[in-house]
Each structure stands twice: as structure tokens, then as C-alpha cells.
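Hmm, what's this shape?
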Amino acid sequence: MDGTSIAFAPLLPWPVLGTLAGFALLVVVLGFVRRARGMMWRTLALTVLAVALANPSLVSEKREPIKDVALVVVDGSPSQNIGERRPRTERALEALTERLKTYNDLEVRVVRAGDGASEAGAINETHLFEALNRAMADVPRRRIAGSVLITDGQVHDIPEALDRLAEAGPVHTLLTGDRDEGDRRLAIVQAPSFGLVGKPVELTIRVDDMPGRQSPDAAVTFRRDGGEEQTARVPVGRDFRIELPVSHGGQNVMEIEVEPARQELTLANNRAAVVVNGVRDRLRVLLVSGEPHAGERTWRNLLKADPSVDLVHFTILRPPEKQDGTPIRELSLIAFPIRELFEIKLSEFDLVIFDRYRRRGVLPQMYLDNIARYVEKGGALLESSGQGFASPLSLFRTPLGQVLPAEPTGQTLSVPFRPKVTDLGRRHPVTTGLPGDRPEGEPAWGRWFHQVDTLPTNGAVVMSGAENRPLLILNRVGEGRVAQLASDQIWLWSRGYDGGGPQAELLRRLAHWLMKEPELEENDLRTRVDGNRITVERRSLETDPRTVTLTTPSDETRTLDMREGRPGLASATVVGAEPGIYRVSDGTRTALAVVGAVNPPELADVRSTGDRMAPVAAATGGGIHWVADHEDGLRPGVEVRRTRPDRDQTGNGWIGLRANGDHVVTGVTDTPLLPVVAVLLLALGALLLAWRREGR
């Protein structure tokens, strides 16, 4: 394709040339006014000279056409998995690209967007215009023929300012769904992020039937942490409040599911999940000290340092066998409420600690039996053994012996030693990764000097002491938990003796394990969610080679291989491609992962519609067409035409892509229109004729 035009390269500057031309015109006009002879020839001579000074030339351009660019954006969001949308999308894409290939002046770019497996934000919203802008970023607007979006119409990043979008040609929409679709959805209207352990939280939910109400109410199932189901009838189209209990600290996953309606596109939006972080209002601890010693204040200071701990300290300062003549009325200011603590309100305590306690007749056997029953019903007990545990007055010889995990041998070991984490302890969350622990060699913490020799009868030995004898034993009893520390010298670490040690960290983990905090479960399956990335973790005290099964919100299953990164912890990572509840199971335990927002826009309304794209079509001159209306077997899809920019870009059953006619110039030929010799001869000839005419 070539182009021809006339160009001027004046021999004098345009202002000078204009001045001379004006003066010449004035002379010519004056001559005609006076009717001077030969003015026609003089005018011709001046005109020739003026044109010659303008130096016109014929410019011929050799042009090479540039292909226009057509952009096709394919919606790969989770809502496209509904019904026949995905295969219909692929058929429409294939038919569209085949038709566009027939135009030699067109470059086709196909972009896939909204795939949650590669885009973290795609699981919540469908961003097609973001992908469209990236695809056209390196293309001048004058080369864009138009854009075609193959989608179900649920697009969530439509720009507010559509004027600039219109500069890039028409934006057409091919809808992949069916007309007059119906669906039911469950939405979380209000949900708290935190809740107090032991107290219920209030949730507000809503069930909607779209486009209209299909039934007055619906059955909704509630389940906490994969436990037992509870069902209630919930009105359709109105907010409904429910109360769900927070049973433990950490994440409490509340699953809510509504029964299907007569018309359903997907069940993914019939389910919702709320993660409520359980926090303890106050931690009530009962500390029972058997006799004064250097470590007693360490226990008290540690517990009182935490403002969330309510501490009741029961200490025996004067044993009954001590007879010093002090009157009974002077031994205390008030009577200590032993019965209230160890019988009436015992169940209100979260943790009971016996520190260096021995039998002296202060606490009757009945109260110690109450503590044993308290543990079996779900309580927590920590026993720190002193020398009295190895004597006939040992707590093991009381009803508490039924729940303690180690039996005294009657001997004590009074030699320097450094507590060590056992191989089993390195797999247990209470002692794994303690600061200063070294798998090889001595740990980098201070020495202790006294330990009670015991024989474990139950539980897990996670730390050893002098002569590799059991030092810290953990055990589950009934619904409760017990920890036994066969030494009363952990206080040396808090004083920094011989370098100190991780006393605060160890006791913090120990207390949280005793109170059943989920993050310290030694045999557990759990999940962590970061964006759309799901990390599955399995803690176990023994090597577990089993795989786990992941069930997606659309009820598809896949197998994950667990790899042990450090002792006791195996993990696997997977990317969630759709929002909703993912269920992980190893055959014994089940964990849940909630991916996406509480009410993801991607699932808010999954019906296929052109309403969202209507303003875009109106602003850019594009069209909205249903793919299902144009499927005719071998060649599905709408007709594609190349149109002029000033013509309509869509019509009944067809879409237009404008032909811009852009090009690049590969060569230029410049030919003067007035050769110098011809100009001179013509000017002189005209002047001679004018002189001759005047001489007559």
C-alpha cells in the first residue's frame, strides 16, 4: 500500500515569502485597478516565481500495513465450573479463534484470567479488565480492533471511567451460561472475629433464593470443628440470628450449610464457614505449695506476671506436727476456705499445680480424690516433685496416685545434671525446638542438682535428667491432662544460674498443653491458610506415612503426600483454586480450611447475566450475546466482521472488530514539481510577453 502527497520546502522562510507574496499581490491589484497593459502576463510571472520559491514536490510513501490487535479474554473463575459453562467456553473460544485467523490483517491475543490456582485474588473476585489492561499495555490504541470477553457475566473489576476504555475499540461479551437460571445462597451477615472460651457467640446469617423465593423456610445445619450436627429451620429472605459456643482457645471453625432448593446452580454457595478465635477471659490457677522453698516465689511471680491469670495460692507455712505453743487464734487472720476451693469451686479452676507437696493431714483424702475426679472430667494438673514425693508421705500414696503418670522408687538423685529433651520430646510440641536444645551434645542451659527417681507407668517422657532418668512426663487421664516434673529446681533457670534456661517458654507451653490449646496438640491434623495457599500439617509422636485426602468446596477429592520437615511435624501445601471450605482427612482426624472471604463476591450470585457488562457495551459500542443462542453444532459462536471505525460494531448475531488501517512507512520518494530551468523560462517568457504588450 502506497501513499502520495504534495510537500513544500520553501527557499525562503515562510514569513519572508508571505511578505513578498503580499507585496506582489498589492502590485497586481494596483495594476488591474489602473488597467495597465500586460498585467495578465505579469501576474503569471509573479505566480510562477511565488510557487517556485515555495518549492513544491511530490512525495510518494511506500507503506507497509500493520496488523490490528484483537484481544480475547477467557474467564477461568470458579463460577465457570457450573453446568456447561466451561465446555461451552472452550467451544466458543475455538470457534472464535478459527474465524479470526481468516483475517490476515489481524493479530489475535488470547488471555486467560480468574484462575484461582495462579492468582491469589481470583478465588474471591473475577478480574477480567485487569487482565485486559495487561494484554493491551504494549499496543497503541489506534491498533486495537476490539476485545471479546468470554465469561458468565460475573465480573467484579469493571472500571468506573469507561471513556478511556472506549478508545480501545468495542468490548464484546459472550455469555456462557443459560438464561433464567435460579440458585440458593447462604450469606454471613455478621460474625465476630473473637469469642470468649466457654461462652457463645452470636452469628447472623441469611438464606436467599434467586430470582424469587422457592420456599418460606429452609433447613440449616450447624457444625463446630467437624463435630456433631445441629439443625434449625431458617426463614428465607430474612436475617436469622444463632448462638454457637466457643469451646476452646485458638481457631474455632463454624460450618453452616443450607439444604438445596428446587433450582440450584451450585452447592458451593450453600455452605459457609466462620473462623472465631477463642480467647480466655481469665485463667484461674490454684497453686498448692507444700512447704516454703526457694522456688515457691518463682512459681508465684511467673503466674502473677500475667494479668490474665487469677491465682489462688494455698501454702502450708506451719505443718500440723509443729508444736511451738502459738495460740490457734493467732495462726491466721481469717479461716482459709479449704472446702470452698477443693470441693465447691474446684471445677472453676483451669489448672491446679502441686508444688513440693507432701501428705501432712492438711488436705483430707476426700479433697485429693476430688482433684483426681476433676482431672478425669477434663481438668489439668501439674505436679512438681520435691523430696517428699520419694517418702512415705508421697502424693502418689493418695487418690492422686490414680492420675499421676510416674511412681516414685523411693530414691533421690542429688547430682549435677542438665535436663535433656528426649527423642520423643523432640516430636512433642511442648518441648520441640526449645531455645538452647541441641540434638547432638549437651544443651546450652544451666544445671539442676536434685531429682526424684521415678518409674513411668503411663504417658510420654519428653525430658530426662540425672542418669537419663525421667524428668518431665505428660499424660492424658480420662478427659483431662497431667504433667509431672520430677524435680523442684526449675527455678534455677529463672534466676539465671549457670546460664539459666527456657523456664518461661517451657512452662507456658506446658500450661497451654494442659489446657488443651489446639496449637500444642501432639497428635493432630491442622491447616493454615495464607491467601489461597493451604498448608496441611500433621503432628504425631510416631512416624506416620499415611497420605491425606483433600476435598474441595465443589466436592472434588485429591491425595496429598505428607513430608516430614522436622521431627513430629509433616506438612503439604496446596493452592486453593476456589473459595469455600476445604476438608482434609487422614482417615482418623479431620481438619477444615476456609479459603477466601466470608462472603466472596465470586459466590454471591453465580447466575449468568449481562447486566454488569451492559454499561461497558453501551460505552464502547460492543455487544452482549449468549453463546447458547448461537451454537449450531460444528461451528458454534457468533459471526465476526471487520468494520469501519465509524460504523456499528455489533448487530443481530454478529460482532464487529474495527479495521484501523494503521501502517508504517518503509520508503519515501521526493520529486520536485517545478524544475529550475522550466521555472526560469516560464517566468522570463511571461515577463517578455508583458513588456511586448506594454510597448504597443
Remarks:
- Residues 2-64+666-695 form one domain.
- The chain has a mean pLDDT of 82.
- The chain is about 20% helix and 35% strand.
